[in-house]
Design brief:
The chain is of the alpha+beta class. It has one domain. The chain contains one helix and three strands; from the N terminus they run E-E-E-H.
């Protein structure tokens, strides 16, 4: 998994791929929130990644 900090660009990496049977993900959590919201974003990314 690759995590990129969200920027002001119009296109943000947010994709999942399968390569040779391995899941590859690119996600962009938004750091412009308080810590609790960032934690929720990261928890959701981790849950989504491990449940597929």
């Amino acid at each position: 998994m690759l995590l990129y900090s969200r920027t002001n660009e119009n296109i943000q990496p947010d994709s999942d791929y399968m390569m040779s049977g391995n899941k590859i993900s690119m996600k962009t959590p938004d750091p412009n929130h308080d810590f609790e919201m960032i934690k929720q974003q990261l928890d959701k990314i981790a849950t989504d990644f491990t449940n597929h």
